[in-house]
Amino acid sequence: MYVPNGVPQYLELYCYPLRILKLRKNPVFVVLTQSDILIYQTHPISPLFCFKKPKASVLKHGSNNGLAFDSDSMTIAVSTDKNYVVLFRLQFDVEEQSLRPSSSKTVPMEGPGECLGTIKCVVRHSLTLRYDSGISCIFARKNVLLCAAKNVPVLNAAHYNANDSNDEQKQKVLTKAIDFSQQSWYISKDTHIQKLFYDESMGLFLFVTANGFVYTCFDLFSQLKTNDDKKGVNGICVHNPNTEYANDCLGNATAISVNSKFSLAYVGTEKGYVCAYQIRDFGRTFVLSRIHKPCTTVQPVFHLDTSPDGFQLLAGFGESWFTYTPYLRPVSNNTSFGSGSFGVVDGFWDLDGTSYCCLEQWKPIANDDGSSAIAPVARTASSTCMTIIPFLRNTIACGVQTALHLSALHTTDRIFIPNTYYTYASDVDNFGVNSWKQVEYPPDYICLNWPIRHVAFDRAGEYVAIAGRYGFAYCKIHANKWKMFHDELAEQSFTVTGGMVWYHNFLVCAVRTGNGLELQLYSRDRDLLIENIQSRLPVTAPILTISRDGPHLLAYTSDNTLYHVQIVVERGSGKLQFVSKEDFNNVFPTPYRIRSLSWFLPDYAKKFPPKQFLSYAIFIILIDGKLIILTSDKKGTEKSVYYQSYILCKNVEFYLYNDKETHEEASLYTHSLWAITADGLKVWLNFYELLHVFCLKKNTAGDNLGSIEEDVSSNFDKLQLSSPPLTSEVLVSSDATSDRYTHSRSSSSIYFGPNSPLPKTLTDFQAETEMRNRAIVLNLTDSFMSILLINGLLMSYTSDYRSTNTSGLSYANVEVSVKPFVPSLALGLLKAGEEAESIKILSMFRDQSYGTYLLEMMLQQVVVSQEEGNTTWLLSSVARVLERFPKQKWNVVANCIRKIEMKFWPSMFKVFGQPTDIFQNALQEDNILAAQECLLVLHVHDGISKHCKEMLQLLQQVQQQKQTDVMNGLIDYLSMLDVEGVMSNILRQACKTMQSSLDSGMSTEVCDQYTHELEARAQALDL
């Protein structure tokens, strides 16, 4: 989702940095050195304050070695090597700028997020604490300082008051110690804690021990507030370094990070493994999900950091860094950066994720006088510096599901839209178009409202809307003309929180205003004014995601309510009309984990009025990386709505659902589902028909729910529930796949037990298995960008490092890659036994200039990638498909044989015949190009001396069709490979054949010309 782009920037420092820490709520970061604290602002990048320790303080307290920051009390905590922790108060004065221009004529231009300028910052000493047990690491949060002891597994907690005076004698500090060696779940009895980590959004506390274990504590900060010292701390082991993987153990943990958007915990080890653990049961269960080791050599993982939106993970190694998707699919790295490659030991993402500021991996070196110094591992520059890596971010990460049909890449100040979208609108055959159309954000908007959080394209790709901290703006792409609010106060009166989506010339926004939360409808034909808002619709809670299907709009809120709204257009004006809403409290326990939601109606439900659509709709939901299908039904005249869930696949990053007719013959595309997963791109063609066959066959009218309930009652013991789950844990259970529950919205709570009411439960898992098996997996090597359905093309992008020869400047370049997905899709249908559908999808591109290329790719994939035992039957299926394309068949076969390795030839000859047979078939079809390819194969396979007859036949056919270019090219190529010296004899024999031919249809002059040319070539070969 993120790829490096452009030239890295460097921030020079005058001394060696130990740590770098970004403030969670402010555009400020702190750099810690052995004696100083440096405060920097990110937008604009400028120094704010430098706190230099006096020499007396350094001698008394020691040198700095650890850093923590409490965002709630604006407190900086610094630990020293003499077991002291010094607290500093950080204060900002936004009204006063620390750097002012010398005159009014030199006022700098304000960039993204630079409306405040360089603010004034003051750092004051607050408190000094000493720990006799030593200090291994520290952490601060909500006026609580956590300090891990150095040699024993003890965690010391100190409660300080941020509002106390600066007099240390008057400040009260309450302390509490937790001895983990007394806890039964703590395996590392005598090992101290080495690293502390806390994720604010999930409330998850993790720590790493010196022997490489990772643990989590449940509700640690709540227990620290109690005065009961005898009460134990609950926790579990997350990572065990002795876990075996690929005949090796994972190794000691060295770095950790948490992805709250996807409920994942990442652990990096000393052996170079990056492990992803799925977080379940509200942080009570951790399941190892994915493992990746990018480096062939053993390099420890020094640093892990997740981007703000959760779509990217950066891993810093000893001599390189890598970026991954949430489920550890590699995206980019700097291993090809040459001498400019470096490792990452610490760093942070910018607020919008378009840059990463990092510290390079350092190592001590010996000076000439015998003393030691610090120098970077790879860089040879004399100055110490931090590196800022620029990234391009995919707009998929900041768009709702309905707007993913078109995506682009954007940076801090502009958006890059591939010209491929507009090139292929007219079916132009030009694979590999990599040019971009750049649309710069309006400076007035981006200066005040950076970072950009939401991006939405309209269906035609003509307009793009962006939304930052406040308001929004939209642009006509081809004209590069932006439209913004005329009144700055009106723009800052609301914030887009739940996304945006286009409907024709209307834009729907889920916003938060000063008066509450609502949906707003704007027309792009009118000026952006508060009085020009077409319609408003208030909601009760923040909107998490919106989705549109035609004029029907779905809005899902944080209080587990699903709104159905209809966009009504009359006489050029639009209106948001409330239709219905449903309560999902008994279905989803944690609304914030739902990242996208879409729906469609079964055929039998379209006869009902719109108010009942939610009761019969089929929902596609992405929650915790699982793509779930939720089918609903009503039983008779009851008001209860029953839901049955099916997990289609796991490790899903995002998905696209197509519900539009894109081609006259593209009925397969009409209801197709495309899921981007860690293993590639999974496709369900005719998704609605599959769902109707396998999942809705028993519930088209809700009459069979009674029999399902009876079956549940008789098989309750087979559900294998270890303990009665909570109501909020029914759908997202810790096991995930074996048990499915069907909920009724009529009841406010659900209880489990022998004597308690049972929920409706789906006990037949065959439907879910069948749906999973119908998925077609497409290989995805680069980062996904978009799918051009009407052209059968998959568009992706990748980044590689380049350097200039003159200046030696190295930079990252991003290119668009366009590849056909039709061959893999057709093969997937063949494997599923859908030969007719495979022929149908290939026939859509029969008349395209790259139609033959698609068939050739399909045949080549079968021959090269299939196992030997499965090649014959699949090749036979492909051969039957090629029979439906007689004009392209022999070209496809001949080109494929030429391009594959010789070890695959026997399989091809077994199905399509010997090379001589293929040659004769091509001649019968008057396919000169295919016959020429076959002749070259014969030359390699048997030698040209054994196939003089075929050579003469081809030359005669060339003579009849007057294709001199083909003849000359073939003769030149075979002459260079003629080690047996038979080419001249063949050419003379061809001369005789031409002169004696009476039915060639050629004039005497043309025949003499051919004969003279062949004779000249024969004489040249004799010499």
Fold and architecture overview:
Helices cover 21% and strands 37% of the residues. The strands form 15 sheets. Strands 1, 2, 29, 30, 33, 34, 35 and 36 form an eight-stranded antiparallel β-sheet that branches. A four-stranded antiparallel β-sheet has the order 3-4-5-6, with no helix packed on it. Among the domains are: 589-666 and 696-727 and 749-768, no CATH class; 821-902, no CATH class; 914-1023. It has 22 helices and 59 strands. The relative contact order is 0.05. The longest helix is centred in the C-terminal third of the chain and has 19 residues, at 1004-1022. The protein is an alpha+beta fold and 1023 residues long. α21 (983-996) packs antiparallel against α22 (1004-1022).
Task: Summarize the structure in short.
With 1023 residues, the protein is an alpha+beta fold. Residues 829-984 form the RIC1 C-terminal alpha solenoid region domain.
Question: How are the elements arranged and paired?
Answer:
Elements: E1 2-4, E2 9-13, E3 17-22, E4 28-33, E5 36-42, E6 45-52, H1 55-61, E7 64-70, E8 75-80, E9 84-97, E10 119-130, E11 137-141, E12 144-148, E13 154-159, E14 174-179, E15 193-199, E16 204-209, E17 214-217, H2 220-224, E18 235-239, E19 244-245, E20 248-249, E21 253-259, E22 264-269, E23 274-280, E24 285-292, E25 301-306, E26 313-317, E27 321-324, E28 330-333, E29 344-349, E30 355-360, E31 362-366, E32 372-376, E33 384-394, E34 409-410, E35 414-418, H3 420-423, E36 436-440, H4 443-449, E37 454-457, E38 463-467, E39 473-476, E40 481-483, H5 488-491, E41 494-503, E42 506-513, E43 516-523, E44 535-539, E45 543-549, E46 552-557, E47 561-570, E48 573-583, E49 594-600, H6 613-616, E50 618-623, E51 626-634, E52 641-649, E53 652-658, H7 667-670, E54 672-677, E55 680-684, H8 687-694, H9 705-714, H10 766-773, E56 776-778, E57 783-788, E58 793-803, E59 810-820, H11 822-831, H12 835-843, H13 851-865, H14 868-882, H15 886-899, H16 905-912, H17 915-924, H18 928-942, H19 948-961, H20 964-976, H21 983-996, ...
Antiparallel strand pairs: 1-33, 2-33, 3-4, 4-5, 5-6, 7-8, 8-9, 9-10, 11-12, 12-13, 13-14, 15-16, 16-17, 17-18, 19-20, 21-22, 22-23, 23-24, 25-26, 26-27, 27-28, 29-30, 30-33, 31-32, 33-34, 34-35, 35-36, 37-38, 38-39, 39-40, 41-42, 42-43, 43-44, 45-46, 46-47, 47-48, 49-50, 50-51, 51-52, 53-54, ...
